[in-house]
Amino acid sequence: MRIIGPNQLHFDRQPVTDFDDLVSRYGGKEFKSPMRSTVPLLALLRDGWPRLQEVLTACHLPAESNLHFEYTVDSPLGVGIPSHTDVMVRSGDDQLALECKWTEPRYETVSKWILKPPDPNNRRKRLMGWLELLQPHATCNLHVDAFSDTVYQMVHRAASACATAPQPSLAYLIFGEHEKSSNDAGKKDFYCIDRLGKTIVFAKNQAHAEFIAQRFDVNYPHYKGAFARVIHHGVPYAQSLIDDFSNPSKPPHIAISVDMLDTGIDIPEVVNLVFIKLVRSKTKFWQMVG
Predict the structure, then answer these.
(1) Dihedral of the CA atoms 203, 207, 211, 214 (nearest 10)?
(2) Could you tell me if 87 and 160 are in contact, meaning their C-beta atoms sit under 8 angstroms apart?
(3) CA nearest 22: which of 80, 66, 78, 57?
(4) Residue 123: which residues within 8 A CB-CB, separation 6 or more?
(5) For residue range 30-82, what is the model confidence (pLDDT) as tens digits?
(6) Which residues contact 51 (CB under 8 A, 6 or more apart)?
(7) Average of pLDDT values for 194-198?
(8) In sequence order, what are the beta bridge partners of 172?
(9) pLDDT tens per residue across span 127-143
(10) 113 contacts 137 by C-beta, under 8 angstroms
(11) DSSP letter string over 230-274?
């Protein structure tokens, strides 16, 4: 395994000594959820530097490139929060803004972002500033109105790459479960994250189960609907839901159960049990576990 060279690793513009030093620079919110894309990104660095090296090679950058995590660039116009690129890869005249996605939903378009209060005029200035950074690399004049349907994050990430390098580029590294099909021939998988294993959540009653499902949908809106389902005697087609849950490749992957999955169910695919109710009988507890 190749060892990262001295002065190659940075948090923003500050050199860090090693992986542990890098992780310590992140704020707590980056690890508040294990589903943030920061987690598999850092796993690429910690568990398999050659994987990340493959990504750089695919983007035509040498393995000796400098890696700047959480690299900040501000718009030259307006007032606001700087753009934080997940990894800015720098090598001579080349600069690659590498943005990572896992479970995060798609960000809003410019047309929605620019109208948000409290100061749409300032937002328009911010966007004009990003376009100023992009303009030297464009083949036509860039106008704010032409970017209405563009994802705003893509604009300021691309502008960040253009800010200080003659040869900038932007790439999105998308983590996720992936089943190859005939249309995927020639595609490269750098790092594939398995989905959550089949999980049973034991709720105390139907209202409690519905509450758990609602909180899941609020916290993980991109999984809302099929990923976590309530299963009890009052749910239509409950047995069909159990049959689907028994299939490793079909949702739901989280079954929020009220009595129906407590005993007498044999689903080998289940790898997680979550007890959110009191079980006063030792015998029933072991039946539920078994």
Answers:
(1) 110
(2) no
(3) 66
(4) 78, 80, 113, 114, 115, 116
(5) 887 777 888 888 888 876 567 777 788 888 888 889 999 999 999 999 999 99
(6) 44, 190, 191
(7) 70
(8) 99
(9) 999 999 999 999 899 99
(10) no
(11) EESTTSTTHHHHHHHHHSTTSS-SEEEESSTTTSS---TTEEEEE
pLDDT at 48: 57
* Between 263 and 206, the higher pLDDT residue: 206
Structure tokens, 124:
């328009």
Alpha-carbon gap, residue 288 to 290, rounded angstroms: 5
User: In sequence order, what are the beta bridge partners of 174?
Assistant: 101
Nearest Cα neighbor of 97 from 137, 142, 143, 149 is 137
Question: Which residues have CB under 8 Å from 224's CB, separation 6+?
Answer: 217
Question: If you average pLDDT over residues 166-178, what whole number do you get?
Answer: 82
Could you give the residue ranges of the DSSP H alpha helices within 17-119?
19-25, 38-47, 49-58, 110-113
The pTM score is 0.63
- Indicate the length of the chain as a whole number: 290
